[in-house]
């Protein structure tokens, strides 16, 4: 069997293993999924009228705020879901499964690839479910073309891949599952201080750089432009650079810990 065939076979096996774990223990996935859904309903039905009135400078219009907030919620969904990858990897590390895999005649990269691909698939599924909820409460994207929808899907998948590699690195570096979950919390906190819920111009001047110079804001603005036809500007290529940089960083961090961690 060629090296490529071996890698594909072993990665597929590890992917099935992680998907079976997610199916047998769905409580974590449900808990992580409930966070963006609850935030969506909270901001739309509790703060929607007030936020839309403040943003438009006129009367309240909840439908406009739904359109504004949904792209940010979709990105937050990815940040929330990939925390499960950090916890899963840390659990494997602390229970000795990773050490056992190192001694077996399997492709070394397949263990991490199984975690990454499984997490990306769960992230995409979570985004679809949150998107269904968004459509049910009034979100519409009638002006987006088929190419823009495809680009939006590609952006979400690329962003999920980048954050998953970072989450895997966090899991590899954590002593236990609880520490992994805590270290991955910035993946939920960063979208909360981005342009997901309010325009950056409406924030205090000292706070605007924090919201602007981070990966979630350009990604949200790019997705918002693709789905709603707003101005994308430089956010598209900035998002790609962020995604590639985070993916490379997470990959090198994860593989380094996998190859050299004594556990």
Average pLDDT rating: 86
Outline type: elongated
Radius of gyration: 19 Å
Unreliable spans are none
Distance between the termini: 30 Å
Strand portion? under 5%
Sheet with the most strands, sense and barrel status: none
Q: How does the helix and strand content classify structurally? A: mainly alpha
Our count of helices gives 13
Condensed summary:
The protein is mainly α.
Report on this model:
With 263 residues, this protein is mostly helical. The chain is built from 13 helices and no strands. The protein has helices spanning 3-24, 27-45, 48-56, 62-81, 83-95, 97-103, 110-136, 146-173, 177-183, 186-192, 208-212, 216-228, 235-260. Helix 3 (48-56) crosses helix 4, helix 4 (62-81) packs antiparallel against helix 7 and helix 4 (62-81) crosses helix 12. It starts with a helix and ends with a helix.
Topology of this protein?
Layout: H1 3-24, H2 27-45, H3 48-56, H4 62-81, H5 83-95, H6 97-103, H7 110-136, H8 146-173, H9 177-183, H10 186-192, H11 208-212, H12 216-228, H13 235-260
Helix pairs in contact: 1-7, 2-4, 2-7, 3-4, 4-7, 4-8, 4-10, 4-12, 5-7, 5-8, 5-9, 7-8, 8-9, 8-12, 8-13, 12-13
What are the salient characteristics of this protein?
mainly alpha, 263 residues
């Amino acid at each position: 069997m060629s090296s490529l065939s071996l890698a594909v076979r072993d990665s597929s096996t590890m992917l099935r293993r992680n998907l079976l774990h997610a199916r047998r223990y769905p409580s974590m996935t449900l808990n992580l999924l409930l966070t963006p859904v609850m935030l969506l309903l909270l901001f739309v039905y509790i703060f929607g009228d007030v936020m839309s009135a403040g943003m438009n400078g006129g009367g309240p219009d909840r439908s406009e705020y739904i359109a504004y907030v949904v792209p940010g919620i979709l990105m937050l969904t990815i940040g929330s879901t990939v925390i499960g990858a950090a916890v899963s990897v840390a659990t494997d590390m602390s229970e000795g499964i990773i050490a056992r895999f190192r001694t077996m005649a399997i492709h070394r990269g397949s263990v991490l690839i199984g975690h990454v691909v499984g997490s990306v698939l769960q992230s995409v599924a979570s985004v679809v479910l949150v998107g269904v909820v968004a459509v049910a409460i009034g979100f519409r994207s009638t002006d987006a073309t088929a190419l823009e929808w495809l680009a939006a899907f590609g952006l979400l998948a690329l962003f999920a891949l980048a954050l998953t590699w970072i989450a895997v690195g966090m899991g590899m570096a954590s002593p236990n599952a609880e520490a992994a979950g805590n270290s991955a919390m910035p993946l939920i906190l960063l979208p909360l201080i981005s342009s997901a819920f309010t325009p950056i111009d409406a924030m205090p001047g000292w706070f605007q750089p924090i919201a602007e110079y981070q990966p979630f804001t350009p990604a949200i603005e790019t997705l918002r432009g693709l789905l709603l036809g707003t101005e994308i500007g430089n956010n598209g290529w900035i998002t790609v650079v962020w995604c590639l940089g985070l993916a490379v960083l997470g990959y090198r961090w994860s593989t380094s810990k996998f190859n050299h961690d004594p556990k």
